[in-house]
Give the backbone structure.
Amino acid sequence: MESLSPAALQSILDDIAAAMAQRSDRGQPASYIPELGRVSPQHFGIALCLPGGQTLLAGEATTRFSIQSISKVFTLAIALGRLGDDLWQRVGREPSGAAFNSIVSLEHDQGIPRNPFINAGAIAVTDAILEGLQPRDVLAELLRFLRVAAGDEDIHIDKTVAASERAHAHRNTALAEFMAAHGNLRNPAALTIGTYCHQCAVEMTCVQLARAGRFLAGLPAAPRLVSPARVRRINALMLTCGHYDASGDFAYRVGLPGKSGVGGGILAIAPGRASIAVWSPGLDAQGNSRLGAEAMEHLARATGWSVFG
Amino acid sequence: MESLSPAALQSILDDIAAAMAQRSDRGQPASYIPELGRVSPQHFGIALCLPGGQTLLAGEATTRFSIQSISKVFTLAIALGRLGDDLWQRVGREPSGAAFNSIVSLEHDQGIPRNPFINAGAIAVTDAILEGLQPRDVLAELLRFLRVAAGDEDIHIDKTVAASERAHAHRNTALAEFMAAHGNLRNPAALTIGTYCHQCAVEMTCVQLARAGRFLAGLPAAPRLVSPARVRRINALMLTCGHYDASGDFAYRVGLPGKSGVGGGILAIAPGRASIAVWSPGLDAQGNSRLGAEAMEHLARATGWSVFG
Amino acid sequence: MESLSPAALQSILDDIAAAMAQRSDRGQPASYIPELGRVSPQHFGIALCLPGGQTLLAGEATTRFSIQSISKVFTLAIALGRLGDDLWQRVGREPSGAAFNSIVSLEHDQGIPRNPFINAGAIAVTDAILEGLQPRDVLAELLRFLRVAAGDEDIHIDKTVAASERAHAHRNTALAEFMAAHGNLRNPAALTIGTYCHQCAVEMTCVQLARAGRFLAGLPAAPRLVSPARVRRINALMLTCGHYDASGDFAYRVGLPGKSGVGGGILAIAPGRASIAVWSPGLDAQGNSRLGAEAMEHLARATGWSVFG
Amino acid sequence: MESLSPAALQSILDDIAAAMAQRSDRGQPASYIPELGRVSPQHFGIALCLPGGQTLLAGEATTRFSIQSISKVFTLAIALGRLGDDLWQRVGREPSGAAFNSIVSLEHDQGIPRNPFINAGAIAVTDAILEGLQPRDVLAELLRFLRVAAGDEDIHIDKTVAASERAHAHRNTALAEFMAAHGNLRNPAALTIGTYCHQCAVEMTCVQLARAGRFLAGLPAAPRLVSPARVRRINALMLTCGHYDASGDFAYRVGLPGKSGVGGGILAIAPGRASIAVWSPGLDAQGNSRLGAEAMEHLARATGWSVFG
């Protein structure tokens, strides 16, 4: 199966886009951030980057959407580059078994979030990068990282979404203050949360996102941003924790490391084979893109791509 | 790295065995089952099976030990063969974020265990296989499966361990009765728990266990016991849930699907490359073999084997 | 207000019975025990005993019903008489903040139930009394205690209810086995749970129950079964824990120590003034008699009886 | 016992003060607020007010201490006066079964705190009073209430303690933000928490506190601040929830409604008989004054005062 030609893959993508266009059970866009709630669930786009340097696409793959929690993958890469394994003093590496915004395990674990992909953990990661810097510097670094990774300068933060997010950040602020109470926050909560809201408001297209993920797939054309050993570890975290309390289900159905965002995007990695981005704004009960996950499952089945054999 | 010769691999195994022999911080054998508590933490063995049919070993790789929860992988394979996806009506596929014997999430989830590898889930799996049969039939089927998988008739249940386990099964009985209260048990708790205690008391050597795992690695010499699609799914569950609340850590450090048992064994799968078994009875705080996990990490680093790139 | 004459009190009881007869929102009888589920929610009875020795009644106050968890008050009195403060090694004295049959806090507290009035705690109490005896002896002692307390020999166990209860005791068995796993059970779970199911199946009338509660109210005519200091402590436990996770609400609305049962009965104590029993089988969401609690609230308001001023 | 003369009571108080002076196991002052941590655990004072108008005292009953959470009783009284039963839309009336500052049940209950005496609940109460006002107005009203209740104008807020509290309010801020996320906060978290920190920093002597509690005991000399029905309800809440997850224990040992503060004070109410205040800064594991609780137990035993008979 590994010898699927780009043409054969394009045909698979076209099939997926066609199938998804028929679907009426699309889930609902995230409602807790007004700006996201206004996006129509009718959108669907998919893009993938191959070892040969090709980028294939289908559907609305060049429409921008809010990457939201997918940004956590990139801030994690930056934080590991900056702090190395010291980061793990502040955040764990275990699936949480709870919702993305749960505060329960934070109390149980004395202010140490379970992993860097639940909200509390991602806030701790952002807080770690922010130490000694200004929010604008951190956001500039994130954009620089994304632009280099994607080979595309046209990646920006949507200020309106960031502001909407900031205005509805009570729960994330609660998580930050709770960590502060346990000595696990280095900056004022308002500063860290402000930065976090902006990082989530980065907007990208499927094409840009798939290209930005190439370094995680180890594709030859990808810029070398992170060592192979660290790439494997980021992929491991995506696989075990990338879809909140549906991570096990995604691993079972799709078999690839992936990270979702409440904007409806998913980035998935087929190591050595492809970096894949999909977008459909309707979410399931766990806050993951319903059609996005199905498209990934369809693609994995059609290509035989799986890290599990 | 994929072209490591058997001789090079043997040298790695020898290095690992030598390094582990030096270690004094070995953890403690499981104490809650007296028969297991009597085993010395000094043991260490490792074996691996390769695509070419070779089996390499080092240390005490031909000494029998109690496979305990590693049996859950094989009963899961049997249950999926028997019930197919209907099994997932009775057990989930998510990491639990809690200890192997926790009853908390069972209450939260109305008697549906989080996954088939925590105790509650494995009891549900055994209960599913047992329906309409006698315990002896189920245990005979498990032994038949293991013998075919390993290509070795000399695999048995240690009756003394089974009895010791049965005499200390209060917590597992509580899990079973709790599921019964939610209509998620088909047999009398005593029957299911009796079967479960015997399944955990299967004893195997590292060589036997590595050979029994070949079908999960998709090695050419392996008997075709399960379809490739299902193999991938079992591997996915091992990766996300195979080490209880240290599953994320094992994925991060080792990068291979694995399943541990409180007897000190670990089975790990490098798809297409190797089936690996290791044994050292001393456990860490999460109930996984301390040196076993370190040996797996050492091996993964030395070989470059990882599902994550 | 304290000088209310028996005639005035009778008039209050009559008003309450008349008001309750009009009510259509009666809640549903307990459904998890078939025998209890068959009782009509139309029943209502109330009885109270006064310092002068009078027993007043209204409605179906001489119809027998299953006292269920109200039995926990009497087994607690027996256990404290037998073990004294040693009992508190095995069960706590704090409100649980959780449902009557929750197992969660049991895991958190290492097998020590929060208080003697949630199921786990009452099972521990029964187990403590049972040690060294046979179930029949314990049940005989309980009946003897109730008969002396009520001054009425005609108090029995409903064998059909006991059997129904035993057949649906999975969850209580889970609690018992869980305690056994933590060394907090002295008898085989089946023996303790069998005894517990029979104790819950005692049937009494409102008149009998109000009379049986006189010793807790310190009424002059009551047999001296328990020291005044211990009576106060039992009343304290009833007030803080007697209605599961609605105990605070009952204290707020009624202001008297009370204990409810899923058979629809409630026993309440106005120290020095009255022992009160009410019965209506329809339950609210917390498993307490809906009309029973309202009748108690009505009575407390009309009489001014409250332990709080 | 009810006829104990003031002289007999004075003798009991003297005995208690003498006994407490001998004690070396005094617990540790609250450490999480630096200003409180500096207070010596050697202090002990007690005062009680009687129906005849007398105030008896022993030990350091005229030394000021930080009343901390005891302030919650008075803000509750103010809030009930302002909002009536509408307050119960925003906060529950059940014991929480968890620590005073736990956030877990808040997640479980969708942002509704379990009761007005855990931190989250008290913050909701303060937030309710604050709506439409400025912090200074609310604090002025609280001081006015306390001064009228105690008949003493010399009651103030310790600004240094308030500032120390404000600087360490991360956890309380987390609680407030979490409630805000569920729509259960009317003011900016910083405003509500600032007010809350000042309310906790009121300082009073045992004599002042005992006098301020007279209206809850229904003493003839007390100003009529709250209706008798509401007084009973506040007492009920103190009894079931006043000592966090040691409320059941206090009810069992002392048998009187009471409210503790981490400054080491306890206010207890013997309805119709006395209002009692005690102070000793050393705390037990639940955050309640160790010697304070023992002194209350001693007093209850010596006087026979108990709401339970």
